Amino acid sequence: MAQESELGGYQLVGRLAVGGMAEVYQARARPTTQKSPGEPDDVVVKRLLPSYRNDAAWVKQFVDEAKLTVRLRHPNIVRTYRCFKAGADYLMVQELVSGRTLQYMQEAFKNAGATMPPSASTYIAISLLKALDYVHRAKVGENGATIVHRDVNPSNLLLSVAGDVKLTDFGVAEVEGVTRSETGILKGTISYMAPEAVLGQAVDHRADLFAAGTILWELYTGQRLFPGSSELEMMHKVRDCRVPSVLQLNPEVPDMGAAIVRKALQPDRGQRFQTAADFLRSLELLARRSSWPVTVDALKPLLVALALGAACQGGPRLRPPALEATLVALELGPGAGRLEVTVPLPLAGGSQVTWELALDGRRFAVGLETAPRAVPGGLTFDAPLAWRHFGWRDGARFLRAEVRGQVTATGEPAGVPYRAAREVLVQGAPVLDSPVE
User: Fold this and answer.
1) Which residues are known catalytic residues?
2) How far apart are CA 152 and CA 210, in angstroms?
3) Angle at the Cα of 202 from the Cα atoms of 199 and 208, rounded to 5 degrees
4) Which of 71, 226, 316, 356 could form a disulfide with 17 if both were Cys (CB 3.0 to 4.6 A apart)?
5) pLDDT one-digit tens code per residue, 323-365
6) Per-residue model confidence as pLDDT tens digits over 269-308
7) Distance (Å, rounded) from C-alpha 81 to C-alpha 263?
8) d(CA 45, CA 13)
């Protein structure tokens, strides 16, 4: 079966992921696509798996998720633009977040034998709690029903290359009185459930806060809180709720941070934080006392690796866009000239950039003979150009010059080693109206 190239009027760029009920594609709107107000050209298209098209229960769950999330507008929540049916397909159009899941970043740290800095971990938790505070305060329908996400876990948290943290996947969310499941039905990811959930009791918004506490414990310690080789083993561990001390596993976490996590993970939900706002205020106070930023600056040690698509082996991913560098100078003439390009990225010391100059369509590699120099907004690279580089005589004539580049970066931001390559698109490469001599 040939791979599909279009869904619902959107050109498919590639499949990003497939889950239990849906598959997700990166897509681009065509000029004729009927977009929603505010919808950009580059989006994610989520499709209900074809095997569930004729199952009324699965269709309802998919449509219910879309109806719920299209109403949610918050900077820490992935936006849903619309849901519609195209032929036999049920489709949802959502915001494209160029980056990685938190789960991916956790695995990268684990593979490197490192732990995420407490400041970055706290910022991620603060961003998540801002999203949950909004969700729990939102009122849906005529009766003002409340929302419980029910599947807060690292795979449903996206970290963008700009440092945004966004909650996604409301597929098993409950709206009180509208989509509430039967008592005893497990929904969500077991190792991030609250004890009352695995015991089959009714859950409320405090189950989401327990999940947030589990994520923060794991970020602080670099370990899984409730691991297990089977679902039953994980359920027993969640039920028993034995939480090792954060301080014993990571002495760099302040005492106050460990106390916050301990409160968030109390087995008795009446002893936990009762609202996301309470949990959030405690973490913001921790950040202030520790002089940690509560902005994207907290993630800066991670963003270079993330922006370059670091450690891209295996697994679906949202590919970051090419860097848009700026051509500062391209001089060609008798004897020698020069190429000067500015790249808007604080590249690590082990980074290299290879440039390619195309003269009338013939491409030539350009070597860098000097180290890049720092300038406002990035690094500038210089390369001398001599006709001998191209094997042509002095005074050769050309009508068009183009410049391309590729960054190959290596480094260890926050202890996570990476090696990655990324294309550089140079803006401002001239079309030469007259021959260059």
Assistant:
1) 151
2) 9
3) 90
4) 316
5) 556 666 666 555 556 666 666 554 444 555 666 666 666 666 6
6) 999 999 999 999 999 999 999 999 888 888 876 765 555 4
7) 37
8) 10
Digit-coded pLDDT (tens) for 81-128: 999 999 999 999 999 988 788 998 888 788 777 788 899 999 999 999
Q: Where are the alpha helices (DSSP H) in 176-251?
A: 195-198, 205-221, 231-240, 246-249
Quick count: other Cβ atoms within 10 Å of Cβ 388?
Answer: 11
Residues counted in the chain: 437
pLDDT of residue 436: 38
Question: Domains, the chain, ranges and CATH?
Answer: 6-95 (3.30.200.20), 99-303 (1.10.510.10), 323-427 (2.60.40)
Two structure tokens written together for 351: 């980074």
Write the CB contacts of 390 (distance below 8 Å, at least 6 apart in sequence).
Answer: 359, 364, 396
* Sole residue written with tokens 């190239």: 5
Query: What gap in Å lies between CA 129 and CA 212, rounded to an integer?
Result: 8
- The mean of the pLDDT values for the chain is 78
In tens, the pLDDT along 174-190 reads 886 454 444 445 677 89
Return d(Cα 72, Cα 199) in angstroms, integer: 30
What tokens were used for 159? 């970290």
pLDDT of 362 reads: 64
The CA distance from 23 to 423, in Å, is: 27
pTM: 0.73
CA distance 423 to 277: 42
* φ, ψ at 120 (rounded to 5°): -65, -40
Q: Is 96 exposed, middle or buried (0-12, 13-18, 19+ CB in 10 A)?
A: buried
- One-letter amino acid of 368: L
Q: Give the residue among 130, 122, 167, 124 at the shortest CA–CA distance from 285.
A: 122
Q: What is the pLDDT of residue 282?
A: 97
| Contacts for 362 with CB less than 8 Å, ≥ 6 apart | none
Return the amino acid letter for 413. Answer: P
pLDDT at 16: 84
Distance CA 356, CA 367 (A): 9
Locus of tokens 């003002």:
144
Give the span between the Cα atoms of 212 and 198, in whole angstroms. 16
